[in-house]
Batch of 4 targets.
Target 1
Amino acid sequence: MTATELPGPLAEIADDFRSASNDLKLQLLLEFSDELPALPERYAGQLDRLERVDECQTPLFLVVEVEQSSAAAERRVHLFFDAPAESPTTRGFAGILHAGLDGLSPEEVLAVPDDAPMRFGLAEAVSPLRLRGMAAMLARIKRQVREKSAA
């Protein structure tokens, strides 16, 4: 993967969105919203352990875990999100990032271009303000990966 490419899973999702009509894009976004995994029990009721993404129009919280291993190649990133069910667009963006990034290595996540949210062709289907929220999610994910990989 070069600095301008998306990692495999995220690239496949981006291709699906770019090839879809605007109506289908919204349907795909709803599917990602529905597929966003629930927060694990260890974070239930503990939103203070998650980071709020203020740029999102609805409350969204996230936390990143980086598996610690003596072999850097074996470390994996895991993403967890909390967003209200009545916010399908925000949940959909979180679902895309979860499906596209969860399980990748820290290096793969950090190599994701900052403009990745603009590569889904969603600008015609959702407002720029909403896309800014997805970009903020990605920025926070990458920051947390850097911090937790260095620890």
Target 2
Amino acid sequence: MALVLKGKVITELGIRSPASSFFSVFIKQLHNLQNIAGKVHEAKVHQGDDWHGTDTVKIWTVTLDRKVQTLKESIEVIDEQNKSATFSVFDGEVSKNYKTLKINLQVIDKDDTDGVAKWTFDYEKLNENIAPPYHFLDYITEITKDVDAHLLKA
């Protein structure tokens, strides 16, 4: 019997802010996330010159699974027309459990005032004793709520 180490975790969260504005926070205003989201404590560019480029690596200090953790992230793909982006998350605690962790965000307009933020976590665990990254669902739910509330106040 083959071990299943790869998997996918998906959550869809309703948002009330415009989909284009919500998507823009993660693509054009990522440097502000530390000022918007309570679970993001610090963010800085580690490698590269542009916060929003696909060749830039950022270091994030976040509260994940009730612990302050540091991890690295880079944007792999941006599809502005479909309001979709894929991020690679690595190093720190993430690398202790996962060979790969990719996070895809797709923001979908439902109507003029409502939308959906669809988050997909594609992962490969280092071994079968490691749980899927369900703890990221709580984290991303809080981030989504914080960004949505911030945009509704603006």
Target 3
Amino acid sequence: MRTIQWTSTRRWCMVLGVVLAFWPSFALACTQPVGGHPHYTPTEHTNAAAIVLEGTVVGGQPNNSPYIQMATVEVTQYFKGVAAGVGSPFVYIDGFGSGAACLSQVSIGDHLIFYVRIGPKGQWQAHYMSAGDAIAQVTPEIVAKIIAAVGSPPVIPLPSTPGPLDPTSIPITTPVDPSTVVAPTPQLPRELPATSQASLPLIWWVLLGLTCLAGGIWLQWQYLKSRV
């Protein structure tokens, strides 16, 4: 009986350790629907978004996350939504994050096309039509399709604005079609926290799992040692 209990304890320690150690990876995975996530063309994205711009990520606020959630973007040109004479060269865009959460992941230095929606309080947010598709690579083909969809040339931002402009103060030239508005993402605080703590629960799960796994291995070693 003691041998059976000993074997069961070792086995469950190792199984529990593996499950807890790797559970965060499975839990955070962006679940694929049957047939995969739908794909939309640059034209469809442009027609659905309130603002479309090209720019470079020059800053960001992790906000309790290892990933940038609110990006500071230096705008190269506006394709849609901002008229000449009112476009800022720097803007804030909310709603990015981990690809495991089906969000678009951005890093400082990324030069991209951004599809933007207007949030309930006027803030600019990443516009998603499918998983992780609020951004696009800057290629001549995509740029040409966006310009064709808008029907007018891009607008170069004003060079006089010294820093990031509050998005709610920028007049939007294209009204938002309510049928294209997706559920708003949570508004993120502007203050950058001193430390990031959102990932701590996952870290504790991993540490607990590794501890159980190590305990199972130690019990296995003790069992083999007792048989020598």
Target 4
Amino acid sequence: MDHLNEIENLKVRIKELELEIKKMSVPIISSIVDDTILVPIVGYTGSERFEMIRSQVLEYIGSHSNVSSVIFDFTGSDLNGNNAHNFDTIAFELKVMNETLKLMDVRPISVGFHPMIVREIVAAGVEVELESYINFRMALKVLLKENVGIS
């Protein structure tokens, strides 16, 4: 009987650790620009991952109401790899993420898309309105100029 209880306790612990790993897979980092956070997207980028990213970011914004901009950095995502992707799904997920944040009055910015991905999404005829920059540094430059009022 003790072995069965131990197995059940271990199953519960495994579920807790799996949840913790999922939360850690969406790091949210404060930026040098006031009220801006960085969300690096690394690895797998399927629909359930986008849902997890949205949930984590919205939860963060809920407890940090000063956030006005979110920069999603796709440099390390599998979007930029050689894997075959459904570009309609990727575009849809990006659109949902952007619209969700805009409803919260938060500015979504995407960076780090590989030119091949951009070309494929455009060639597929998918319409997505994104504010995007080549890299994180360029996005920060734009935000800093806006915050300081430098032209």
